[in-house]
Design goal:
Blueprint lengths: L2 H12 L5 H25 L18 H23 L8 H23 L1 H4 L3 H21 L3 H13 L5 H15 L7 H26 L4 E4 L9 H5 L2 E2 L5 E4 L2 H10 L3 H12 L3 H21 L5 H6 L7 H34 L9 H13 L12 H16 L1 E6 L10 E7 L5 E10 L9 E6 L2 E2 L5 E2 L2 E8 L1 E2 L2 E2 L4 H19 L14 H4 L1 H7 L3 H9 L7 H12 L28 H16 L7 H12 L7 H9 L6 H9 L3
Parallel strand pairs: 6-10
Antiparallel strand pairs: 1-3, 2-3, 4-5, 5-6, 7-10, 8-9, 11-12
Helix pairs in contact: 1-2, 1-3, 1-4, 2-3, 3-4, 3-6, 3-7, 7-8, 9-13, 15-21, 18-20, 20-23, 21-22, 23-26, 24-25
Amino acid sequence: MTRSECLQHQILTHAQRHETEDRTSEETKITQIQHAKQQKTKETGSDQTSLPGCDTVCVNLTAKEILDLVDEIISISTRVHDAVALVPLNKLSYENVVLPLAELEARQLPLIQCCVVPKMLSPHDNVRKASAEAELKIDAHLLSCRKREDVYRVIRIYAAKGESISPEAKRYLQCLVRDFEHNGLNLTATKREEVDRLRNEIDELSLRYVQNLNEDSSCLFFTEAELAGLPLEFLQSLDKTQNKEFKLTLESNHVAAILELCKIAKTRKTVAMAYGKRCGDANILVLQKLVQSRHRLARLLGYAHFADYALDHRMSKTSTRVIRFLEDISSNLTDLASRELSFLKDLKRKEEGELPFGVEDLLFYIKRVEELQFDLDFGDIRQYFPISLVLPGIFKICQDLFGIKIEEVTEIDVWYYDVRAFAVFDSGSGKLLGYFYLDMFSREGKFSQSCVVALQNNALFSNGACQIPVALLIAQLAKDGGEAVPLGFSEVVNLFHEFGHVVQHICNRASFARFSGLRVDPDFREIPSQLLENWQVNCLFDQKIYSDDDVDFHQLIRSLHPKVMLGLPVVEGTNPASCFTRAVIGSEATCYSRLWSEVYAADIFASQFGDGHPNLYNGLQFRDKVLAPGGGKEAMELLTSFLGREPSTEAYIESRSKYSL
């Protein structure tokens, strides 16, 4: 059964049959888009357009095809929701309430990604523009679906029946109810209006905070002597004034280069001060209003404060537990950190005299210690990491560890000539597990960060069909004259990290697309990548402002900073709260999550793979007990099942002691 036939069957089963002709016509439009792609491929002489056995992922649509497809996605979704809303209340069942929405979600994800991913990757301006337009339409539609009172009423009444369904189906039903109730549908009309108003206000304040930083045009000027230690290629990338001074912006890549590589302490401090003063008073006021609005929203939805709202469905569960976790890590590493800081201070004294050691010196002297201890120039070691060596090496480790086999797929439709695709098989049975694309090199118009995107999630359908996962790894490696530039050490580590997400996506076998691939507990999501890859004031600040009322940001930073940073004061004249974007958008009340994952990944690595060699038995256990269930089970339940106990912080603390300066 083709994708369009499956969608048509779902609609016909759960909607009014007198609309059949209209539906068939609209379903045919999706089929026509696929047929057009196949015809285009025949004309160019290629053997196939899509991944074998996976024609649902169309990676190279034109602008018109994207806009046509998004209209059909919205039309089909609306009809399925309409059909669920019309089910008589005395005939509610899993098959006519939950199943249609679950299968719609599974089938529409790859179609949605076909529309929205091109804005990140397409080399064509018109395609990127159409994709961005499509994303706005889809986002608006999905939000409207989560606000449908008629659908919520049916789902709530069905959930209250307590019908016997599988644990994973029950978890999915709970997610459906939560989606609606987080939009206030269990509240009175007046309170629901207030929820909408607060959400709009939060969006506006978040945008204003980020825009203030983006529009900041502050810059500094330095002589070549004041930038000693910076590589020639970096200096050549900077604008110069008529008196031959270099213009340095306060963009993060410029600031990071100075703090990590510049040998002049005064320059490092000047840059750190300027960076920390950006948007000072303006953004502090915005953040105060934003935190208050988030607290009011959380309380309307039944939570004590915003942190509890943000953590309710995470592995950590409560703000109290997060703060205890962070303070436990901090207290256990205080002695070690004090010794390391003393070492760094001594090194600075030897190299720069009796200048005081500040936060702005940390990155530079940590890197200096690495260079001295390992006698390494991190620029020179690039020659040992060509992509032609690194990529097969990563593949081999994952194959040996997780019992998989990776094979390249050729002669398929891709959006850029150097994009590659691979199939992943179970090495024992030979069963196809999924596919992944690699878009490895930077280019004009391409999304500028490294990440992994789910193009299609694993799912099982009521007719017995199985949808296999497809992932996309986006990297930002460089080319010189058309040839790949060898990787720096940090790039190798990052590639290992991101490929961990690919393995996580491909090995997931959850029945519901909602729990498949990367759609797992965010506290858990980074653990597989941290396992393969093998920060603190900000985390505590973020957690405390969202768990307390009327926090004085400036005073909080002043009290936390010397405690966590072992007496090092905040950089003079700065207030980090004015430029801490992660606490505003993307990681609000959850900045701890990356460290949480790193700590528990260390426990898994030390207890199950401690000798540093791939252990196929333990790797298969991890694949089956942790990766396969995905979000279908509580993350703590998965880890406890794999480890035979609750995860611990001990291995992380020991590893930091073992590899101390």
